[in-house]
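input
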Amino acid sequence: MQKIHAAITGVAGYVPDDILSNADLEQIVDTTDEWITSRTGIKERRILRKPGLGSSDMGAPAVKALLEKTGTDPDEIDIVICATVTPDMAFPSTSGIICDKVGIMNAINFDMSAACSGFIYMLTTASKFIETGTAKKIICVGADKMSSITDYKDRTTCPLFGDGAGAVMLEASTEYGIQDHILRGDPSGRKYLYQKAGGSVLPPSHETIDARQHYIYQEGQIVYKIAVSKMADISVEMMEKHNIASEELTWLVPHQANLRIIEAVARRMGIKREQVMINIQKYGNTTNATIPLCLWDYENQLKKGDKIILAAFGGGFTWGAMYLTWAYDPK
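output
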């Protein structure tokens, strides 16, 4: 009996129209375009500015576009999962809100939170439903409105993050798809990258708002060092496990957190820059949307059978790598 793989059969993305450039940030905080670019590789990021809009308002158009380009009726979808750290609200799930907005009425829906590793964690979870025959069509959407938890008075973090969403369709294949995954976590790292208030430990109050505790907190040097080590090690581990030589790997799709991290991981893997998907310069770190937005941007360059490794590192700490073969040629 042939092994069933969960294959990506379509990808779509959505980013807001409004652009926040480095020049714009120079007017807000004490920073410069040269400082931001040299340390992060980011030139601009997209911001969902209109009041009353959340992550679902980016996830929904991405999912709608995915349904249209794959010719899929909403009633065909069995499961919708949304990876996010900025849900519309505590409950109901953002995935459920997205389903309501695009007309997916009977699908299982739930959210996943694993910080910037959420998209790989989500794909791994979804693949098991496909491999066991429990589901035929699954939509995985990564959506984050990072501007909602970014402190634009903090020059060390506000240049890093942007808003966006990306979605992929998963279906069964006996030839292509997800071949393997490695997921890891070190919860002792939670104190270096997190949002202090807004949960059950520190619910919103005048005190937490006045103390600006509802924004991203990061100890950048520690996070940078560990992110390079963990993303590189796990990606090399995946290559060695499957005997993939550096020249045989078609693409590395890394989480877009920092260009220097991406370049360091590529060097450790022994691959060329031309083998790495990079779009951090125009979107910044969109957390759970970075990997699908890369796939969306590079879709026309992908070919059936391409060997691809996805890699991510996130707060918590969480990290992971996934090896897959691409399932379709450019349309």
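quick obs: The chain has a mean pLDDT of 97.
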